[in-house]
Write a structure and sequence with these properties.
Residues 47-124 form the Inhibitor I9 domain. The chain is 35% helix and 22% strand. The protein is an alpha+beta fold. 25% of the residues are buried.
Length: 136
């Protein structure tokens, strides 16, 4: 029997409830800005999930996260280019393409709780197409 604990459910909900940042919100010149603003690095950027404290009451989540991200990537335009998702339901944070140097800087920022590399995992298929064998 497979057991699912509460953290698995919370993580699933947090990753399922995302707000994609559309390409129409990204400007074509932001790629140049990111290249100029980001520290020179031989390491490629990977996708990281950044968990943060809740923004102040009434604050816009995306603006709050863009402000945090722009402080390490060099500009708001570079932050918009790097930002992938904004999490605001079960967890507060965002996912973004970052270099290891940017991750190191971001981890030191006030309000940043944790930065983890994003991993794609494969769930085990449910045998017979039902969930009868799963314990919740």
């Amino acid at each position: 029997m497979m057991q699912i604990n509460q953290w698995t459910i919370i993580l699933f909900i947090a990753l399922s409830i995302t707000i994609p940042i559309s390409n129409s919100q990204k400007s074509s010149s932001s790629t140049v800005a990111m290249a100029e603003a980001a520290p020179a690095s031989s390491a490629p950027a990977d996708v990281y999930i950044v968990y943060t404290e809740q923004p102040a009451e009434g604050s816009d989540h995306e603006s709050f996260h863009l402000s945090t991200l722009s402080s390490v990537v060099g500009s708001e335009e570079a932050a918009k280019e790097s930002l992938i998702y904004v999490y605001k339901s079960a967890a507060t944070g965002f996912s973004a393409k970052l270099t290891p140097e940017q991750v190191s800087l971001l981890e030191k920022k006030p309000g940043v709780l944790q930065v983890v590399v994003s991993k794609t995992v494969q769930l085990h298929p449910v045998v017979g197409g039902t969930m009868n064998n799963m314990m919740v």
